[in-house]
Design a protein that fits this description.
This protein is mostly helical. It starts with 12 loop residues before the first helix and ends with a helix.
Length: 696
């Protein structure tokens, strides 16, 4: 590595080329994930570059002055990052009012707020482990999560360097020799410790199946720290404190290193996919590959990529990479929402062209002018005030969608409440016998209100445990003196039958006991997600089985499960084995066939909101509507003592599955049934359950 290769004061065309590579990988992944399934590693390349450049800048100042002017540093970051980012937030919020149904406005507003304050990654992390939020469609500002990681790094990293400079004094104050050596040694230790701790936690989070691990700063900071360590090495080399063998700095070695590193990045981009445990150890390939390319610096001679690196389109894409990253994702999300499907190759090319055009405009008219605006550049205080003002404007805009949604929903909610309290004839499932009309009143009001449908779930609180919990909670409902007790066991698709069961149980004076856990079917077959560690079902299943066997008052066990679950072993045998143990213990089992689900690309509630006067447009064919993995009927053949309850005719009529029946919205999310619709199923549910009990 020669001195030319490690100059950090001069322009580095290879870093600009790396930026171009990183952003094009991300854009290609978002447009054509089947072609570049691991293109998400572009974000990791960005992290290394940011860590290197920011640390280089901070080290130069610390070496020159012995301190870091935090106000000047943060002012520079504000001028560089905030103008384009806040503009994107404003444009996205404005456009979303016209493009998205108001069912999504509240979530959009939250994303805008989180993006403005650089905490989008933590919001997404929270959603990823929230069972009810995990399946939300990706919003137009979701890509701001990586900017949040970098911004949080910018807050923490300068303070770490400043602390070392304050605690460690120069070895030879005033000397023209490498007086920064003592501080550098401690910085090696500090950066290395951060990198190792973060990498360790990243690997743990990945292999334990922690869904939040992809987004949180603690699993990503090691990638930026690698860039920081590289910057330390460069500075030490410049000061002759790090001397490398001549063969290592030779052009041929550096050319080969760049080619190997680039090849490793390419292999990761085309071989990684959604099943790859990431970030974790797998992220080391793009991270170290990027670090090697930066360390090698400019190259020449045989095997050099000098001409490609310096080609003006590559350099321009690298220069515009930040704006291209900001604009490409909203365009893709808007297109998907408007077209109702993912882009095909021709549309992807058009979206790429549109993203490049917006990136050019953003770079020319926003990024560059604001970064060099003399009025702000000469005064850190003015830059910080301007940055705070921009954030405040974007955050205020982020409040508007939620406020607008709330105001528009309030009137609908009043009508919906009145309708639910005094249901008309044919309300909900009662209209199925009359052809399942969407509306049975002159008022085209849907219950629950689509924008509030996600909240229309069983009111049983913590009685439904989250997927990560190792416990199951036993809850009782109804009369303590009941002479008949029914247990409801299983996952969220068992839980969504609670209102139908409990409504009938109340009319009969029965007691209902629940053993419910999201994502955990009542089965001896282990879910793949349980094996991977992302959920915890095995212990809860054993506990449920023990508790049911110990009780002496259970007269019937009702169970159901989501047919989309995947298992390590045969699902039918797993269900049959679990049911058989209950039957052997004298506990009759009644298994409910899983409910159909709307097309997976969108929410039925969104479609209804957009077609409120014609919700029939949101209906879908019964053929293919049921999860292929539902093993209920197959399991009943293996364990014939179990009675099967099939309510398919209460969700689909004449080969079509409506989403609104008798003024009632059937689905509260992508595949769970609304509590309101379940309450209208009480008569049919009770009749069929009673017949099954009487026939046993």
């Amino acid at each position: 590595m020669s001195s030319n290769s490690v100059q950090v004061n001069n322009f580095r065309p290879e870093i600009q080329a790396l930026r171009a590579l990183a952003v094009l990988l991300v854009v290609a992944y978002h447009l054509e994930p089947n072609v570049v399934p691991g293109g998400y590693i572009g974000v990791d390349i960005f992290f290394v570059i940011s860590g290197f450049l920011i640390t280089s800048h901070l080290l130069r100042e610390a070496e020159r002055t012995g301190r870091i002017r935090l106000s000047a540093f943060f002012a520079g970051r504000a001028r560089r990052i905030l103008p384009a980012a806040m503009l994107v937030i404003l444009v996205v919020v404005a456009a979303s009012f016209m493009i998205f149904p108001k069912t999504q406005w509240g979530t959009l507003g939250l994303q805008a707020l989180a993006s403005a304050f650089s905490v989008q990654n933590w919001v997404l992390a929270a959603d990823s482990v929230d069972y009810l939020a995990a399946e939300q469609a990706a919003g137009p500002l979701q890509h701001f999560w990586s900017l949040g990681v970098e911004e949080q790094f910018y807050l923490f990293w300068p303070l770490l360097i400043l602390a070392v400079c304050w605690l460690v004094k120069p070895e030879v104050p005033g000397s023209r020799s490498d007086h920064f050596a003592a501080r550098r040694r401690w910085l090696w230790l500090a950066f290395g410790a951060v990198a190792l701790l973060s990498l360790g936690y990243s690997a743990y989070a990945g292999y334990s199946g922690d869904a939040a691990g992809y987004f949180v700063t603690t699993t990503r900071i090691w990638e930026l720290a690698i860039g920081g360590l590289l910057a330390l090495g460069v500075q030490a080399h410049e000061n002759d404190a790090l001397r490398l063998p001549r063969w290592l700095t030779a052009w041929s070695t550096r050319n080969l290193a760049v080619l190997v590193a680039l090849g490793a990045i390419g292999i990761a981009a085309f071989s990684y996919d959604g099943a790859t445990v990431f970030p974790g150890i797998a992220a080391a390939v793009p991270v170290l590959g990027c670090a090697v390319i930066i360390a090698a610096g400019s190259t020449r001679g045989p095997g050099s990529l000098h001409q490609l690196v310096n080609w003006w389109p590559v350099q321009w894409v690298g220069l515009a990479s930040y704006s291209l990253y900001l604009w490409h994702w909203p365009l893709i999300v808007f297109y998907t929402e408007l077209s109702g499907g993912k882009p095909k190759p021709l549309q992807s090319a058009a979206l790429l062209a549109g993203s490049l055009l917006l990136a050019w405009a953003s770079l020319k008219f926003v990024e560059t002018p604001m970064r060099h605006l003399r009025f702000l550049a000469v005064s850190p205080a003015k830059s910080l005030i301007a940055g705070a003002a921009m954030v405040a404007v974007a955050a205020t805009a982020g409040l508007l969608p939620g406020i607008a949604q709330q105001r528009m929903v309030e009137q609908e909610q009043q009508l919906a409440t009145a309708l639910a309290e005094q249901p008309p004839e044919g309300f909900g499932a009662a209209s199925l016998a009359h052809g399942a009309p969407a509306f049975v009143t002159g008022e085209h009001q849907v219950v629950p209100v689509p924008a509030e449908a996600a909240k229309d779930l069983p009111d049983i609180g913590s009685c439904v445990q989250n997927p990560q919990s190792t416990q199951i909670k036993e809850c009782e409902f109804g009369s303590k003196d009941a002479t008949f007790t029914v247990a409801l066991v299983g996952d969220s698709h068992a839980a969504h039958w609670f209102e139908a069961l409990n409504g009938f149980a109340r009319s009969k004076g029965w007691k209902v006991v629940t053993y419910l856990k999201n994502s955990c079917p009542f089965s001896e077959a282990q879910r793949k997600a349980d094996q991977d560690g992302s959920i915890n079902c095995s212990e809860a299943f054993e506990q449920s089985m023990d508790d049911l066997a110990k009780r002496k008052d259970i007269d019937a066990v009702i169970t159901s499960n989501w047919g989309g679950s995947t298992f390590v072993s045969d699902p039918a045998q797993g269900l049959a084995a679990a049911w058989g143990k209950l039957e052997d213990a004298g506990l009759p089992v009644y298994a409910i066939v899983d409910t159909p689900r709307p097309p997976q690309d969108s929410y039925a509630r969104d479609c209804v909101e957009q077609n409120i006067n014609n919700p029939e447009a949101c209906s879908f064919p019964e053929k293919g509507a049921y999860e292929k993995g539902d093993a209920t009927k197959a399991a009943a053949k293996l364990e014939p003592r179990v009675k099967v309850l099939d309510f398919s005719d209460q969700f689909c009529v004449a080969g079509t599955c409506p989403v609104v029946v008798g003024n009632v919205l059937i689905y509260r999310d992508k595949h769970h049934i609304s509590d309101t619709y379940m309450s209208t199923l009480v008569p049919v549910f009770g009749q069929r359950l009673q017949q099954a009990i009487d026939s046993k």
